[in-house]
Protein 1
Amino acid sequence: MLYIGCHLSSVKGFEHMGKEAVRIGANTFQFFTRNPRGGGAKAIDPEDAKRFLTLAAENGFGKLVAHAPYTLNPCSATEKVRDFAFFAMEDDMKRMEYIPGNYYNFHPGSHVGQGTEQGIALIIELLNRIIKPEQQTTILLETMAGKGSEIGGRFEELKAIIDGVHHQDKIGVCLDTCHVSDAGYDIINDLDGVLAQFDSIIGLQKLCALHINDSLNPVGARKDRHAKIGEGHLGTETIVKVINHPKLKGLPCILETPNELDGYAKEIEMLRSAYK
Ligand code: FE
Ligand code: FE
Ligand code: ZN
């Protein structure tokens, strides 16, 4: 089964996103839990969440991917920024329980000169304060492009974070095709080899979701500029290989390409017809 969708605006609530997803041929989607560049969050309407759960069940939706705000940096050098990461994520975990059993993806963070080791230690510290054994949400670390002092460009860094977390059943990875390519993993010519590396370092059982993006830049560029499918260096062929890869089948595929809804609808239709 292909679970495919795109990033949707959460401003009008869950039921609205669900209807929008159905309208564009999606059976999963991603949304920001709060203002991506600020951090403020609107209260969750429990009735809206319930109506969404019914709609999702009726339409056979796969797991959703919530995305933490970009301003959330657990390994900032500034205490105030680290505190925001804690309070935003703690609040997001409570909010996610209204739609239990889904994913919450975040960018591990930028160590801003403190060094990778210190950065990883701070990320682990945050996750161990946040994760409760009874929570129904799985937190996902996103594979990053390795831009600036970003942590998560190497599979080894993600593995080190996972190793430090106490409740490892609550943590997984979201692989972004643009980011891994930008980080230097050649999924164009050697998707099997990259997945074998992922498997030997992290373990493919930890891979929970995919961000499906083309990249404006060649492998190793460390730029993180997304392109529409077929309009970047990865190309349609690579993306089609990813969604059809036997080791990746069944994972929610989220498009984060520069599109409006009609553009997403076309990409979803194209990828559905390329799914074997
Ligand atoms: Fe992201
Ligand atoms: Fe992404
Ligand atoms: Zn990106």
Note: The chain is about 40% helix and 15% strand.
Protein 2
Amino acid sequence: MLKPGQLVTVSVHSLTDKGDGIATLEGRPLYIEGILPGERAEVRLTLVKPNYCHGQAVQLLQAAAARCQDFCPYTACGGCQLRVMSNSAQLELKRQLLLEALQAQGLDCPVAQTLGMDEPYHYRNKAQYAVQPGPYIGFYAKHSHQLVEVDECRVQAPETTEVVRLIRSWMRQCAVPAYNEALHVGCVRHIMVRNGVNSGEVMVVLVVAEMPAEAALEQLVAQLGPVPGLASLILNLNTATGNRVLGPDNRLLWGKDSIDDSLDGLAFSISPLSFYQVNPRQTEVLYREALRQASLQGHEVVFDLYCGIGTIALFMSRKAHRVIGIELVPEAIADARANAALNAISNVEFHQGAAELRVPELYAEGVRADVVVVDPPRKGCDPALLETLARMRPERLVYVSCNPKTLARDLAWLTDHGFVLEQATPVDMFPHTMHVETVALLTRRADEK
Ligand code: SAH
């Protein structure tokens, strides 16, 4: 009988979706943090259930070739799950995750090497630090709201560290209290920092539950002044309870209310609430791959479905005749239109609405796409959308996905309904995490042309 506290020696054979090692112990899965496939470890059982167990590694007995030095001193932080796995092994793992998802649906196509980063650090352009009484500033531990104090985070932009240090000392000097989640009292809840990687501009958003004194705010402006590239300092008021980071009201404390950035020569304006891809260097890689697979000649009508702020649509517009973007969130559509205007691009139009409703409507009106790009949320495409695409029969369908499982499910349906799966390319947008982004190409089956 297995008991908590017991020591066992096991071999890890695979990883969970959260990056924990899985071994098999007396027929049930044993989950162990920080142990990689191919490794043997002595493990202390911490939880024993009839169907699964949890354990903590006490000693690593045999290390995998994939193991590398942990690059981060904050072991309790839940941000990066693959930090003891080398970059090349992470890229191969992500390719395998995609291959397994495709195989599980009986799909077979060439799967490229994962397009990764040579230097997978400081890649994020958006940091969101939680603040708790102390003041402690950092990120949550895995599966919890337990704060892990983090001074310097290796995946954030370097300016972020300085911003956090300056705000910590400002809170102490001006006696501005952190927000207490349990009691719903206090002031500072979160610090958000956004960076325009190509513009060098920095936006700082201080999220508060109540207004700090005016004198303290003046002091904050003075204290953050030396941050290189600081272009925008915003106070965001969030008085609600719950997990939502930003409230609806922004007050500009200093500078301008948005920052600029560019992707592959296209300009974008970023405001505190607007969605923008988090790894801009890899976003260029992802969109270029989508553009390559679309192989536009210049005469095509392109649909960009689930278009967000229109980034893919604007990328495609330079090589297409006409692009139609569709997106559910009205604010994102407003940003998409503003971004088109900012770049003086006139062959794109944006429609607000659910793709599964708007595409059938457009189809009924006689609008047809030669090339369709979809980039849905994790749950994948709605069946009503897939059915319309099967009837519309575009020449090419480029599927951008953040979830290999729903991607494979939808690809399997599409290959049963008139399309051929040609190729898939994994892209590493979030190094050191289990996330994998994919760009997959379907073409219209020849006998259906
Ligand atoms: N292509 C964009 C955004 C992709 S994220 C980019 O690369 O930046 C997925 C988007 O789908 C989000 O913007 C979300 O608001 C939108 N969305 C979610 N459900 C939708 C639906 N049913 N119809 C249209 N858009 C939807």
Note: Residues 386 and 414 are 7 Å apart (CA to CA).
